[in-house]
């Protein structure tokens, strides 16, 4: 399933650092169902691969689907689902 990763900026809440940036996500049990909880495998530019818990969201205006993931260390990723039609 194709996802477009959106880079999150925390500069208003945290000091900027050299945190790894996500380059790929895989969501094997993704469903187009609001608030569906699923696992996300995220690959970072440092080569590190992490498992995150994610929640499926739907924009009420555009109807676009996305997923927001978070792990226990506070790293997060946001990816928009690209519908293949």
Structure explained in plain terms:
By secondary structure, this protein is mainly β. The chain has a domain at 1-8 and 35-85. Helix content is 0%, strand content 46%. The protein is built from no helices and 6 strands. The protein has strands spanning 3-6, 22-26, 37-44, 49-58, 65-70, 76-81. The chain has a 6-stranded antiparallel beta sheet, with no helix packed on it. A hairpin with a 5-residue loop joins strand 5 and strand 6. It is globular. The two termini are 12 Å apart. The mean pLDDT is 87. Residues 1-23 are annotated as: Disordered.
Sequence-ordered SSE layout with sheet pairings:
Layout: E1 3-6, E2 22-26, E3 37-44, E4 49-58, E5 65-70, E6 76-81
Antiparallel strand pairs: 1-6, 2-3, 3-4, 4-5, 5-6
Question: Could you tell me the mean pLDDT?
Answer: 87
The ordered H/E elements are: EEEEEE
| SS strand fraction | over 45%
Note poorly predicted spans. Answer: none
Number of strands: 6
Shape: globular
Class of secondary structure makeup:
mainly beta
The strand order across the widest sheet is: 1-6-5-4-3-2
Sheet having the most strands: 6 strands, antiparallel
Radius of gyration: 13 Å
> For the terminal residues, how far apart are their CA atoms?
12 Å
The number of helical runs is: 0
Percent range for helical residues?
under 10%
Question: Any descriptors?
Answer:
mainly beta, 85 residues, globular, six-stranded antiparallel sheet
In short:
The chain is mostly beta strands. It has strands at 3-6, 22-26, 37-44, 49-58, 65-70, 76-81.
